[in-house]
Amino acid sequence: MLEKIVGARAMEQGAEERYCHSYDATGRSYLPDVVVFPSTTSQVSRIFKFACEQKISVIPRGNGSGMTGGSLPLEGGIVLSMGRMNAIHDIDEENFTASVEPGVITGDFHRAVEKKGLFYPPDPASSSFCTLGGNIAECAGGPRAVKYGVTRNYVLGLEAVLPTGEIIHTGVQTAKGVAGYDLTRLIVGSEGTLAVVTRMTLRLIPLPEKIETLSACFSDIHQAASTVSAIIRTGIVPRCVEFLDRSSLELVKDSLGASALAPGTCALLILEVDGKKEMVATETRQLKSLCLSMGAIKVTTARNSGEAATIWKARKALSPLLYQLAPHKINEDIVVPISAIPDMVGFIEQLQRQWGLTIVSFGHAGDGNIHCNIMYDKRDEDQCRRAQKAVDALFEHTLKLGGTITGEHGVGITKKKYLTKEIGPVEIGLMRQIKHLFDPHNILNPGKIF
């Protein structure tokens, strides 16, 4: 039946293709029974109707870059690989919107709209290979979220297929719209458990006139952490405030170049401001002065776009470089109030000493989102035990500070057991009812979140 729906060339049952769609960035693997590659909304609808009849699970998948197992076929079933639905249907320069399919690579979309003088701010570190559909499923953020917000702030409307096979249209194509419940925002960030998005209307903004990129070196990690909240208190809203600790810098120092880091640098802030030329020049001076007053030993402004690109290339290469430190990692994306960043940085240092593990911290400090990477060897039972204890303590302290256990990566399967520590039973009960309403047969991405 599936072959009749999508055609023989859009369906794979071979071991190799199934294996390629069995894992994501968690490193965990679950083999699907079949992989299908739909190219139309109608095909997705018919696949779901067939799956409902047969009570077969369906797992939507972009490019498998997720960090919490959201696209893993835990029970086998059908992997719905959305890569062939990759058309940019329209970029409306007059109304600042775009109509696109879920398989579009995020970085390709950035370039397409920027050629027209427009700007799509969400920029996850994996933008060169992650897809817009995956970004919507996880409500992706990225470095520019401190100023511009995350994916949900740029989704106006959706075309989506329910697990029952019904096709729905949510939201609007206009700047405003409050008719009825906001189903669009409910689906965005639902981790592919409520519906499969087949088309989206995205909001665009004008491309900033000027961008300046600064890097501030600190000999004291706590001074760097304190500088983040000091920046926000000035009233300046940089579009990026990235934080890298000592271990991060050891990994990327060659990529940054010998002159990028001052001797004795233990932490680095990457700051970026954008807007009108005059405003950017003023804010750049103010940020440089502030960083120096907070103890920075060196503050450098990128001389051109090439130097800025080198800094960001090093930052975005950081995650895969972590495997030079240990064969495995637990990557947590905690978020704390900005004022609590110094406390959290200190606590992470304490965790390293307590459990004898390398813990690498970096991320979007401007909105309190720290990527905490606990490095270990899962073949060593004692290291596994210590790593798990460190995660437990990390989440406990995060919640104590008024934070959240995930800012970008979602719950998926890796954070399921922690969800009740953050969300109460009544609220989780409502979420379960919503899931059942959308997916009465529990065939869409089962086993995730709850």
Strand order, sheet with most strands? 15-12-14-13-17-18-16
Q: Give the helix level as a range of percent.
A: 25-40%
Share of residues in strands: 15-25%
Largest sheet at a glance?
7 strands, antiparallel
Number of strands: 18
Radius of gyration computed on alpha carbons? 22 Å
What spatial form do the alpha-carbon principal axes imply?
globular
Structural class: alpha+beta
Please state the average pLDDT score. 96
Total helical segments: 16
Stretches with pLDDT under 50, minimum 5 residues: none
CA(first)-CA(last) distance = 31 Å
Structural description of this entry:
By secondary structure, the chain is an alpha+beta fold. The chain has 16 helices and 18 strands. The chain has helices at 2-6, 15-20, 41-54, 106-114, 132-138, 145-148, 183-187, 221-233, 246-256, 277-293, 305-316, 318-321, 341-355, 381-400, 419-422, 425-438, and strands at residues 11-12, 34-36, 58-61, 78-81, 88-92, 97-100, 118-119, 155-161, 167-171, 196-203, 205-206, 210-218, 240-244, 267-275, 296-301, 328-335, 359-364, 369-376. The chain has a seven-stranded antiparallel beta sheet, sandwiched between helices. It has a five-stranded antiparallel beta sheet with strand order 5-6-10-8-9. Helix 8 (221-233) packs antiparallel against helix 13 (341-355), helix 9 crosses helix 11 and helix 13 (341-355) packs antiparallel against helix 14 (381-400). It is globular, with a radius of gyration of 22 Å. The mean pLDDT is 96.
